[in-house]
Design a protein that fits this description.
CATH architecture of the largest domain: Alpha-Beta Complex
Number of strands: 30
CATH superfamily of the largest domain: Spore Coat Polysaccharide Biosynthesis Protein SpsA, Chain A
Shape: globular
Protein name: mannose-1-phosphate guanylyltransferase
CATH topology of the largest domain: Spore Coat Polysaccharide Biosynthesis Protein SpsA, Chain A
Largest sheet: 6 strands, antiparallel
EC number: 2.7.7.13
Number of domains: 3
Strand order of the largest sheet: 20-21-22-29-24-27
Organism: Rhizobium favelukesii
GO molecular function, one term: mannose-1-phosphate guanylyltransferase (GTP) activity
Family: Belongs to the mannose-6-phosphate isomerase type 2 family.
Radius of gyration: 24 Å
Strand content: 25-35%
Helix content: 10-25%
Distance between the termini: 38 Å
Structural class: alpha/beta
Length: 475
């Protein structure tokens, strides 16, 4: 049993509205925007107070599992569990599975705080006051949502109407409203008793499970069986595919919150944004005297009210107004901020064309449980990569059928296994791995290992890897 709150973080979404930085295999919750941490890492930090919270439960999918583990490790934040959803079933099934797990590991009266991992939130005293009000309200048997105090007549959010005041400081939910037209949004803003639906919740496990049994019996049945038949894989808990797939594809709002008579809302005046477009990133950023939000590695001249960001080349922007210029390692987006809600249509066009579809899926830099690699140059029968290996990690013992490899160490120390031979390579030293030879790369040092890999051969795809031994369970 615990008196602390158990945070449940949803980190499986695959949005691409913030392209070219956000992509299917690296969505916005795992990307650094203006600050030095990703949105997922900022979410972890908000629930890191050991006096208030237990270690988090994170829900994600197979594709993002190592991103979750590595970004938590970077902050030295321990996780209670990483639940892997085998298929996407929206938030109702995910929250039901988390509640089932929490009930087994803690207690039926445990309070859960459900958070998205892709919001920009200022976690100040006002924020934590709202958290404590929500926890007190949940302890009294209410299913609590956080209602953000509107700052404009936004049409991209759902709204909640607040009703009767409760003794805790929360209010009874009078009704939920779908995303409104502008005129209706202006009316609600003027009325003052309407709030943006933040997608954050607080409830006791027992109350949630009771409501699920009443309003969403198929969801709780599928989630319960998925947890009961889950398999442990390293630090991950794999929900049973067959059981979880049977869950309806519905949100927790639709499954429970809009149907229950026990819903409450905490009026929340803290700064919040779902960062659903480049315009919202600009609004949430720190603007200079000309209204610009400009990240590092940029030069901005005679430009105002613009967003300038780069994760690659240096950007120089001159004579612009109301412009978003966003550069990733391999693509640049330029458009008016007021049109940034339409980035999704460009992404669909790129995804439909074979020559550009890869630009919507992955970045040149890919992350693995041992570190990762960046594609530097591709040619006919050769490829150049920068490989980085975290201290203490090793790649799988493997071989390739179609390529040979040359490794040149540029930073750190490499332990290289080739056949029966093990050798140490230091900066400016190199080695050759013949086609078909069993080999392994490890970092025995205390600093990041970086090397340049030159591949040559008839086929250079990532699927030409025969893993013989792998500490991450991939052999």
């Amino acid at each position: 049993m615990t008196q602390k709150i158990v945070p449940v973080i949803m980190a499986g979404g695959k949005g691409t509205r913030l392209w070219p930085l956000s992509r299917a295999a690296a969505p916005k919750q795992f990307i650094q925007f203006i600050g030095d941490k990703t949105l997922f890492q900022e979410t972890l930090q908000r629930v890191s107070d050991p006096a208030l919270y237990e270690a988090p439960v994170v829900l994600t999918n197979e594709e993002f599992r190592f991103l979750v583990a590595e970004q938590a490790r970077e902050l030295d934040i321990g996780l209670e569990a990483i639940l892997l959803e085998p298929v996407a079933r929206n938030t109702a099934a995910a929250v039901a599975a988390a509640a089932t797990l929490v009930s087994k590991r803690f207690d039926q009266d445990t309070i859960m705080h459900v958070l998205g991992s892709d919001y920009e939130i200022v976690a100040d005293d006002t924020y934590f006051d709202c958290v404590r009000i929500a926890a007190a309200t949940a302890a009294e048997g209410k299913l609590v949502t956080f209602g953000i105090q509107p700052t404009e007549p936004a049409t991209g959010y759902g709204y909640i109407e607040g009703g009767e005041a409760l003794t805790t400081g929360a209010r009874v939910v009078a009704r939920f409203i779908e995303k409104p037209p502008l005129a209706k949004a202006e009316e609600m803003l003027a009325a003052g008793s309407f709030y943006w639906n933040s997608g954050m919740f607080m409830f006791s496990v027992s109350c949630l499970l009771d409501e699920l049994r009443t309003h969403a019996p198929e969801t709780i049945k599928a989630a319960g069986e998925a947890v009961a038949n889950a398999k442990t894989d390293l630090d991950f808990t794999r929900l049973d595919r067959s059981a979880f797939s049977a869950a309806p594809n519905i949100s927790i709002d639709y499954a429970i919150m809009e149907k229950t008579s026990n819903a409450a809302v905490v009026p929340s005046p803290f700064k919040w944004s779902d960062l659903g477009s480049w315009d919202s990133v600009w609004k949430s950023g720190s603007r200079d005297e000309h209204g610009n939000v400009a990240a590092a590695n940029t030069t901005v001249v005679n430009t105002k009210n613009s967003l300038i960001m780069t994760h690659g080349v240096h950007l120089a922007v001159q004579g612009m107004d109301d412009i978003a210029v966003i550069a990733s390692e391999d693509a640049v987006y330029v458009g008016r901020l007021q049109d940034s809600q339409d980035v999704g249509s460009i992404v669909k066009m790129l995804a439909a064309a074979p020559s550009t579809s890869q630009l919507t899926e992955t970045h040149p830099t890919s992350y693995r449980p041992w570190g990762g690699y960046t594609s530097v140059l591709n040619g006919d029968r050769f490829q150049v990569k920068r490989i980085f290996v975290t201290p203490g990690k090793k790649l799988s013992l493997q071989k390739h059928h179609h390529r040979s490899e040359h490794w040149i160490v540029v930073k750190g120390t490499a332990e290289v296994t080739i056949g029966e031979n093990v050798q140490m390579l230091r900066e400016n030293e190199s080695v050759y791995i013949p086609l078909g030879e069993i080999h392994r790369l490890a970092n025995p040092g205390k600093i990041m290992l970086e090397l340049i890999e030159v591949q040559t051969g008839s086929y250079l795809g990532e699927d030409d890897i025969i893993r013989i031994v792998d500490e991450f369970g991939r052999s």
